[in-house]
Specification:
The chain has one domain: Ferritin (Up-down Bundle), CATH 1.20.1260.10. By secondary structure, the chain is mostly helical.
């Protein structure tokens, strides 16, 4: 049995606790809680960080789209990839909403062809290739979120970034397992 196939607890977790908790945090953030005391410079700084994160989410969505369209993924793996893509869409919408709420302009996504070129999608020849690409992007996103947490002037945004990093870490762990790779050494994330 393919390890990525056996993810019922991940799905239950994502459909329940994590997304609901993230949404609750997002509602507080978007309602202006925590942002009132921030200066214009702080907000500009935070918007810049959020836009970089939004760019990563656009890239993640595109990568899962490319993987799904490749025809290389088995049904169960494809289902999980689509679920992960949906998670990235939730992240995208949360980040775009926060950027707008802070008075910024969300960065726009590139075309699928631009992402395909940047991700070297033409080199994807197997399901394993697609999963390795996704694994790499999830690790990069996890590390990006973890690295910016201390940089946020608004502590509510730092909390949202930590929750997003947790989602990315969960994606990475499932993909790592699906590829049959060994468990990572301690302190892999955030390095």
């Amino acid at each position: 049995m393919n390890p990525i196939h056996s993810t019922p607890s991940r799905r239950a977790f994502m459909q329940g606790t994590s997304v609901a908790t993230l949404s609750a945090g997002a509602v507080l953030l978007l309602a202006g809680k925590g942002a009132a005391a921030a200066t214009k410079g702080d907000l500009t700084h935070d918007v810049g960080i959020l836009n970089v994160a939004l760019g990563l989410e656009h890239q993640g969505i595109a990568a899962y789209t490319l993987g799904a369209k490749s025809g290389l993924l088995q049904k169960g793996v494809l289902d999980v990839a689509v679920k992960f893509q949906d998670d990235h869409k939730v992240h995208r919408d949360l980040l775009a909403g926060a950027i707008t709420k802070l008075g910024g302009k969300p960065v726009t996504e590139k075309t699928l062809d631009e992402y395909a070129k940047a991700l070297n999608a033409g080199s994807l020849k197997s399901q394993e290739d697609v999963l390795k690409l996704a694994l790499s992007l999830e690790l990069g996103a996890t590390n990006a979120y973890l690295s910016v947490i201390p940089s946020f002037k608004d502590r509510g945004l730092a909390q949202v970034a930590a929750r997003l990093a947790a989602d990315e870490t969960a994606h990475w762990a499932i993909l790592n397992n699906a590829l049959g790779l060994p468990l990572p050494k301690a302190m892999l994330f955030g390095a």
